[in-house]
Write a structure and sequence with these properties.
The structure holds two protein chains of two kinds.
Chain A: H1 16-39, H2 45-50, H3 52-85, H4 91-103, H5 106-117, H6 124-131, H7 139-164, H8 167-175, H9 180-191, H10 193-209, H11 212-217, H12 228-238, H13 240-269
Helix pairs in contact in A: 1-13, 3-7, 3-10, 4-7, 7-10, 8-9, 10-13, 12-13
Chain B: E1 3-11, E2 14-22, E3 27-31, H1 38-46, E4 53-58, E5 61-65, E6 70-71, E7 79-82, H2 94-104, H3 109-122, H4 138-150, E8 156-160, H5 168-183, E9 188-193, H6 196-202, E10 205-210, E11 213-218, H7 220-225, H8 230-237
Helix pairs in contact in B: 2-3, 2-4, 3-4
Classes of the chains: A mainly alpha, B alpha/beta.
Chain lengths: 274, 240
């Protein structure tokens, strides 16, 4: 239906070719989800979710993704601070190294983890010899793979926020006698809180969706390494209903997260600290 | 002298070379055009910008001397700093801002709050203690910043353009309030400003910096009577 010509229209300045292309782009993103939701067996939704295989994968995904997001926060914030404030040669190279896993095909990340931390890997063999500890086929392998792939999202978000935060507040705090660590806790961290939230959520969402590195490095044992993404992929061959239901759960989660994050994310991106 | 500083800071396209001495209870005003090096001077004294050569001493203690490899970091110097636009911490209340320095130095919460409350009474703002910095006026924020800097009993108080963030209508009354408050402070004081009226009301002596060098020093009257450069003449011409 067309808008009536007599309706008062306020020109918002968008040229019509832009509007046309933008509309097509929105349709492009919407269609796959419409298709998926159209085939979803809604009446069986809770039956499928109740199946033990699905529940196991769901629970494993929640545990590992929350752990990976926490590890990303713990290890990523100091890295972000050093990348934003540190003055040392090769800083750009270090940033590229530490965020490469974000753009690499996840399978390549999995291969790299396999040959370094796998049972026969360059470092993994010592873990096995000395501590009888293995990442492969264990839940720790899943967490390592997820953290490896997800942490860069937090690092880049938090680094941008630290760069944009007004360093003079830290100067003020130091001139009042605050040690570096005290100033970091009381001034820097509160100032970048929106970015911390955004970074943790992005890293968590990425960890939840992680597939390639996990299946390559950690395997796909139900209960220990078979996460939701892996279970979805495998279910396509056996029970399409299961794949659809798992997909719906992940779509709902992702949409809720991104929608809820929007304001905070924008706040972090524009450097608003209040 | 409380503060004895004779130093230079060399940057890529800028050199600041000054000689500054201030006695306890005395206010020195530093005037000069934008980019003359006024803020850099304060940052060097506070320990936020290391000097290139020379030395900074406070009550006979060396704070910065590259030749002797001495550098006392900002958090260890007995120096209070009132920043331009005050930089009150937005996530803390007014009283938490004032108590920050004591808390940072390990004073327990109750003692720090009691002392902060005394300082807020001193600047006449105790009824605003629980407000956030965004809820008070510019003139009030300036007094909170002064109370916050004084909470740690500094021996040198630095004020960077304390009136520049205020609109013209409130400036005069805030200036006289500040003058009265500074009179009760027994530490040495250095006030950076680009407004000679601030310097006249608030300071005992002045130095004028242009392009990183002191071009004239003395009292307001002696400088106004015999300006050394065209800039000084222009600056003080209307007021003398």
């Amino acid at each position: 239906m067309k808008t009536s010509r007599s309706t008062r229209r306020v020109d918002d300045g968008a040229p019509w070719p832009v509007i046309v292309v933008a509309t097509l782009t929105i349709v492009f993103f919407a269609l796959p989800f419409i298709g998926l939701l159209g085939r979803t067996p809604w009446s069986d939704l809770f039956d499928v979710l109740g199946e033990s295989r699905v529940r196991t994968a769901l629970w494993l995904s929640i545990r590992t993704s929350v752990t990976s997001a926490s590890a990303s926060l713990l290890f990523g914030v100091p890295l972000a601070w050093v990348l934003a404030r540190g003055r040392f040669p090769g800083r750009s190279a270090v940033r590229a190294l530490c965020t490469m896993s974000m753009v690499l095909p996840p399978v390549v990340g999995g291969v790299a983890l396999f040959f370094s931390f796998g049972r026969q890997g360059v470092f993994g063999r010592f873990l096995d010899d000395w501590f009888s500890f293995q990442f492969t086929f264990s839940v720790w392998g899943v967490i390592l793979a997820q953290t490896f792939v997800a942490m860069p999202y937090l690092v880049l978000t938090v680094e941008a926020a630290i760069r944009q935060a007004d360093a003079r507040y830290e100067d003020a705090a130091r001139s009042l006698g605050g040690s570096r660590w005290y100033v970091f806790r009381r001034i820097t961290v509160p100032a970048i809180r929106p970015a911390l939230v955004a970074g943790v959520v992005l890293a968590w969402a990425r960890a939840l969706g992680e597939f390639g590195a996990t299946i390559t490095f950690a395997g796909n044992f139900p209960g220990t390494t078979q996460t939701m993404s892996i279970a979805t992929y495998l279910a396509l061959d056996t029970d399409a209903r299961e794949a659809l239901v798992l997909s719906v759960v992940m779509i709902a989660t992702s949409f809720a997260v991104l929608f809820g994050l929007r304001d905070r994310w924008m706040g972090a991106a524009t450097g608003t600290t209040r | 002298m409380t503060i004895d500083a004779r130093f230079s800071i060399v940057r890529a396209n800028f050199t600041l070379a000054v000689d500054v001495h201030v006695a306890p209870g005395e206010t020195l005003a530093v005037l000069g055009p934008n980019g003359a090096g006024k803020t850099t001077l304060l940052r060097a004294l506070a320990g936020l910008a290391p000097i290139t050569s020379g030395s900074i001493g406070l009550d006979g203690t060396v704070l910065d001397d590259p030749d002797r490899s001495v550098f006392v970091p900002a958090e260890k110097r007995p120096v209070g700093f009132v920043f331009q636009d005050y930089l009150l911490f937005p996530n803390m209340t007014v009283i938490e801002n004032v108590a920050f320095g004591l808390r940072a130095r390990g004073t327990d919460s109750d003692t720090a709050r009691a002392r902060a409350n005394e300082l807020l009474e001193w600047v006449g703002l105790s009824e605003h203690a629980e407000k956030k910095p965004g809820q008070i006026s510019g003139g009030q924020a300036q007094r909170v910043a002064l109370a916050r800097a004084m909470a740690v009993s500094p021996r040198l108080l630095l004020l960077d353009e304390p009136l520049a963030a205020l609109d013209v209508t409130t400036r005069r009354s805030v200036r006289s309030d500040l003058s009265r408050l500074l009179g009760a402070v027994d530490s040495a004081r250095i006030l950076v400003t680009h407004d000679p009226r601030d310097a006249r009301v608030l300071s005992d002596r002045m130095i004028i910096i242009e392009n990183g060098r002191i071009v004239q020093s003395g009292t307001f009257d002696t400088i106004a009577a015999d300006p050394a450069t065209p800039y000084v003449h222009e600056l003080l011409g209307d007021l003398s």
